[in-house]
Specification:
Elements (H helix, E strand, L loop, with lengths): L10 E3 L20 H14 L3 E3 L8 H10 L8 E6 L10 H13 L4 E6 L5 H4 L3 H7 L2 E7 L3 H12 L8 E4 L6 H4 L2 H7 L4 E4 L22 H6 L7 H14 L3 H11 L3 E5 L3 H12 L4 H14 L12
Parallel strand pairs: 1-2, 1-8, 2-3, 3-4, 4-5, 5-6, 6-7, 7-8
Helix pairs in contact: 1-2, 1-12, 2-3, 10-11, 10-13, 11-12
Length: 316
């Protein structure tokens, strides 16, 4: 088995890097430029945030390609790359997992991946064994599972353990508004077994960033606008609570929503599309919420009464 994976306090998400780069276009509608992304990487690397999370299906290769170009200016040992095998995008060759990995390696400009995930549990028994030769070849250093429920994680783990490996990380949607991993005992399972739990969408694609409101909705025509704009009025109380607690800590609403996930023992994966997002992560990593503050936020989140489960997610 490989050395234990170094788990950062916060990981950097690049889902939005798969957007076309044109303002208002793509899943998120983020306006991205190559120079701007280079500035983000520079700020992140300097601050010690060095685990970058991507996937083949983020812009169908675009996110990996752009990330590879941005990171080529740094020694490979100075950063970690996390990317994913997505069963729904698998080819029909003899070994679609190995094939997808090779394409990722080429786009990212590297000969190994630090953390390779099975993106969703389409067929645990079919895909999990395919990770074993990749671990043994050294092309993959560590493996994890994403969007799996407890039963699926245990099945994947049994397959890996039979070959002397194990599930080394779990990545699921987890936020103030979506606490299914906690409610079904998945967080506790990971904690008991010392498995890092990575939480994606802690800011609910920006809905908890404090940037958007009923008066200032998300960019129209984007997928996230379709998912979140209608619920923004219901989130006002929670956003107000995030803002007020942020005032006490010299932090923003987004910092507090991320700090909540840290306080619950998760490693948040936070999407970064502007250099100031990295400044927020520096603030977040340095602050600790009190039990009372965490409880206050959870009451406000509960009373918002919204369901933010993604269309790709099964019930936990």
């Amino acid at each position: 088995m490989n050395d234990t994976m170094k788990t950062p306090k916060v990981a950097l998400g690049t889902w939005a890097w798969g957007d076309s780069g044109d303002a208002g276009a793509g899943y998120f509608g983020s306006s991205l430029s190559r120079d701007g992304l280079g500035d983000i990487a520079k700020a992140a690397q300097a601050a010690g945030f060095t685990l970058w999370d991507t996937a083949v299906v983020y812009g169908m290769g675009r996110s990996e390609t752009v990330l590879g170009e941005v990171l080529k200016h740094y020694p490979r040992s100075d950063y970690q790359i996390s990317t994913k095998f997505t069963p729904q995008a698998a080819g029909t060759d003899d070994d679609p997992v190995a094939d997808m990995l090779e394409q990722s390696l080429a786009r990212l400009g590297t000969d190994y991946i630090d953390l390779y995930w099975i993106h969703n549990p389409a067929d645990v028994e079919r895909w999990t064994p395919r990770l074993i030769p990749l671990l043994e070849s050294g092309k993959v250093r560590h493996v994890g599972v994403s969007n799996h429920n407890l039963d699926e994680i245990e099945r994947a783990n049994r397959i890996l353990e039979d070959a002397g490996h194990r599930v080394e990380a779990v990545q699921n949607h987890y936020s103030l508004l979506y606490r299914a991993p906690e409610n079904v005992g998945l967080l506790e399972y990971c904690r008991d077994r010392n498995i890092p739990f990575f939480a994606y969408m802690v800011l609910e694609q920006g809905a908890l960033s404090g940037k958007y409101s009923a008066q200032n909705p998300m960019p129209s025509g984007t997928n996230r606008a379709e998912a979140y704009n209608a619920m923004l009025p219901q989130l006002q109380g929670l956003i107000g609570g995030l803002y007020n607690i942020g005032q006490r800590h010299g932090a923003t609403a987004a910092d507090i929503a991320t700090a909540w996930a840290l306080g619950k023992g998760a490693t948040p994966i936070v999407g970064v599309t502007k250099p100031h997002h990295v400044e927020g992560l520096i603030r977040t990593a340095a602050l600790a919420l009190s039990d009372d503050e965490i409880a206050e936020l959870e009451v406000l989140a509960q009373s918002a009464g919204v369901n933010t489960r993604g269309w790709w997610e099964k019930d936990m």
